[in-house]
Amino acid sequence: MLLKLKDESIKPFRARMDELSPWMHHYKIDDETYTGIYPVDGLYQKYTYCNSTSDKKVINKFSNAYENMDFSAKRRFFSEIIKSISLDTKKSSALDISSATGKHSLWLVEEGFSKVYSSEIRKHQVEQQQLILDSLEDQSYKNKIHVNHDEIYADQKEYQELYKDKDVELVLSFGLLYHVANPIQHIINCRAISNKYVVIYTRTRISPYEVDAWTLKQEDPSWVTLAMEGISWVPHFNYLNKNYRKLGFKSCKIIYPDVFSKNFPDYTQLSRKVVSKIKWAERVKRHFNTDFYYTKNLFPHCNKYAGMDGNFFGYILEKE
User: Fold this and answer.
1) How far apart are CA 221 and CA 230, in angstroms?
2) What are the tens digits of pLDDT across the range 72-100?
3) What is the architecture, at CATH level 2, of domain 87-260+309-319?
C-alpha cells in the first residue's frame, strides 16, 4: 500500500522506524522507504523496514519484493467482502481487532465507514499506527480511525466489554482466529460486540477429515509478530459454515480469494464427491510430487505474487 505522507513528516517518520520495529504490513513511502515482512525474499525477523539510511542492497531487496507482490488481489478480496454485506458504510462503524500496523483500518475508511475502532494489544504497533495517521497527507483517515491500545486478549470474555456500547455494525477479525488459545470465545466476543456482521479471515486446514476438529499448534514467541505465546488452534475450512447456528449466527457465507478458487471451486461444500477429489489430490501430491486440484493453491509462488495464502478463508457471519 502506497502511503503519501506530508513533506514535513517524512524525516520524523524515518527517524522512528527502528524504534518502532518490527513492522508487519506492507507499505511504500517512497523509493527508499518500505515496511513489512516478505518471508519468501528473506525479509523478516531482522529486516522489516528500510529507508534512506539503510544499506543499498537491503533497499533494492525491499523494492524488488514490493514490486513482485500483487497487492491488488488482497485489496480486491477485501472489497468483495465489504460489498457482500448489507450495510450503509457511510452510516456505520467498524471494529478492526488485532489491527497490527493498521492497513485494514485504512481500507475500512476507504470502503466508506464513518468510524473505525482499531484495537491492538502490542504497544509498538499502536504507536506505528498513530505515527502513520499523524504523518499522512490525507487527514481524513486520522479523523475516522480511533486507535486503542487494548491490554486484554481478544479471546478473553472481558474483551467484549471494551466495545459492547460502541454501536459497532461490523467486527473484523482478519488473521487472528488461528493465533488465539480460545478461538470459540473470540468468536463469541465478536458476536457480542457487533450489531450485525462479523467477518473472520483465518488460516484453516483443508484436509477433508473431521470438520469439527481443530488442529493444535504451538505459537513461536520469537516470530516477528511478537504477539502470542503458548498454544493456538486452526479450524477446518468448513467448520464455521457447518456450525454458525451453534455459535448464535443466522447465516455464514464463505468468501475465498478468486486467485485460489479457480483451483478449488468446491470450497463451499463438503460432499462425498468433494472429499474424494481432495483425497485424490493429496495422494497424487504424495506419490508423484505433482500438484493437482486444490494443492496448486499451496505453491510458494501463490504467496509471493498474490500476497495471500491458499489456506486462508474468509467468513461473513450475520447475527440473528
Assistant:
1) 8
2) 889 999 999 999 999 999 999 999 999 99
3) 3-Layer(aba) Sandwich (3.40)
